[in-house]
């Protein structure tokens, strides 16, 4: 079931602001209302958040993390248990807040945004735009998909605890772009005939190429899905993995650390000039585009740029996928996950046109089906899978006969 913004009847998104600082509540209210958001209520502590949600029935809640009586995480849990409503966390730039922010996502929050500073600066228009866009996006999130991914745990060894049974169920496509398909089922090229996916003999280890490259792009609702994908990639697959998750600067390093603890791969935030090897995964840093180039030995070099945002975001999925098409030698797969907008759609087109394999997350498990839907409608998506089937579909492509 999707949250439908505009419950006020005029299409305007309605928000409740929760923060223990009266000044900050006033600042956030002003930014949101200037951006066309109707702030219908406020709460000064997490203990009052649920009452405000019940009273005002908003489309979205902006939630501070640190509050004196009941913190943001506890408030998220109460809201999700009693009156499920999309929650956008407001997090300060601090390492400890980054960890707590990810915990809030684990408890059901849809997304987070950097908390605006108290001073009025030249960056305030950008802050307002980002805040309003995040609120609008969160208000349209499918809470059933968010809850499903939030409840997906990992064991201490980093392996996913989500059961995968022959492809995890049927996936649906949108816009008529391809047949409904299960992971491991025959693969159908657009306009072509079905060909069997690579399979190994019972009990035999899959045969992987010497090196393959997987590019994963995600936005709203993506962190838990990315964790699910990387947790299901065996080290033996010899992949180089590039992750582009729309996320503010200062949080991607902690995100990489979380992924590293849940994956068999060596996961770190990407550094400019480094080379990525099989068995390694790199996360694009916030506020930087991640670009790949190839050296004379075919090794993949990573560079970070601060060129203009694409689709209003930096890092942009399209930038990384386009550069991978130009520089990657060997099999290339691109996966586009949940998120609003169209970042990654052109990248998917480029990968498919160059002979790579493309996978999109399905609607049922996407918090926001915007990016995957547009990619599917383009006709360049080879497979549509639920979140827990993305890795299996990619591995089927990389497995050699």
Overview of this protein structure:
- The protein is of the alpha/beta class.
- The protein has two domains: 14-141, Rossmann fold (3-Layer(aba) Sandwich); 150-398, Methylesterase CheB, C-terminal domain (Rossmann fold), CATH 3.40.50.180.
- The chain has helices at 22-34, 46-56, 72-82, 95-106, 124-139, 143-150, 222-231, 252-262, 317-327, 345-353, 370-378, 390-398; strands at 14-18, 38-43, 60-64, 87-91, 111-114, 187-188, 194-195, 212-218, 239-245, 266-269, 275-276, 280-283, 289-294, 300-305, 332-336, 357-361, 383-385.
- A seven-stranded parallel beta sheet has the order 10-12-9-8-15-16-17, with helices on both faces. It has a five-stranded parallel beta sheet with strand order 2-1-3-4-5, sandwiched between helices. Strands 11-14-13 form a three-stranded antiparallel beta sheet.
- Helix 9 (317-327) packs parallel to helix 10 (345-353) and helix 10 packs parallel to helix 11 (370-378).
- The longest helix is centred in the N-terminal third of the chain and has 16 residues, at 124-139.
- Residues 143-208 are annotated as: Disordered.
């Amino acid at each position: 079931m999707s949250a439908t913004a505009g419950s006020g009847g005029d299409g305007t998104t309605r928000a409740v602001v929760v923060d223990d600082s009266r000044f900050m509540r006033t600042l956030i209210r002003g930014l949101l209302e200037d951006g066309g958001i109707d702030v219908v209520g406020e709460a000064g502590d997490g203990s009052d958040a649920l009452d405000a949600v019940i009273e005002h029935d908003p489309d979205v809640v902006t939630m501070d993390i640190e509050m004196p009586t009941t913190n943001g995480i506890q408030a998220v849990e109460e809201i999700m248990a009693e009156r499920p409503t999309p929650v956008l966390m407001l997090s300060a730039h601090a390492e400890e807040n980054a960890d707590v922010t990810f915990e809030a996502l684990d408890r059901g929050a849809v997304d987070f945004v950097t908390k605006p500073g108290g001073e009025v600066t030249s960056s305030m228009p950008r802050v307002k735009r980002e805040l309003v866009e995040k609120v609008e996006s969160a208000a349209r999130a499918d809470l059933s998909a968010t809850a499903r991914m939030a409840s997906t745990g990992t064991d201490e060894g980093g392996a996913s605890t989500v059961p995968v049974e022959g492809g995890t169920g049927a996936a649906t496509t949108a816009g008529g772009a391809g047949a409904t398909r299960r992971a491991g089922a025959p693969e159908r090229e657009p306009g072509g005939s079905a060909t069997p996916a690579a399979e190994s003999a019972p009990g035999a280890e899959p045969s992987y190429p010497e090196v393959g490259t997987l590019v994963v792009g995600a936005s709203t609702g993506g962190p838990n899905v990315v964790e699910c994908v990387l947790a299901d990639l065996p080290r033996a697959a010899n992949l180089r993995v590039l992750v582009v998750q729309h996320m503010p600067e200062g949080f991607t390093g902690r995100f990489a650390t979380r992924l590293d603890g849940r994956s068999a791969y060596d996961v770190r935030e990407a550094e400019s000039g480094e080379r990525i090897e099989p068995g390694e995964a790199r996360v694009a840093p916030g506020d930087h585009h991640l670009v790949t180039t190839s050296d004379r030995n075919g090794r993949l070099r990573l560079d970070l740029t601060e060129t203009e945002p694409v689709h209003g975001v930096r890092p942009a999925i399209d930038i990384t996928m386009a550069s991978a098409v130009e520089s990657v030698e060997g099999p290339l797969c691109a996966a586009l996950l949940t998120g609003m907008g169209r970042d990654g759609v052109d990248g998917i087109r480029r990968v498919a046109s160059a002979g790579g394999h493309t996978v999109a997350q399905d609607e049922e498990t996407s918090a926001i089906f915007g990016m995957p839907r547009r990619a599917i409608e383009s006709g360049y998506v080879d497979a549509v899978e639920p979140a827990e089937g993305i890795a299996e579909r990619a591995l089927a492509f990389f497995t050699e006969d």
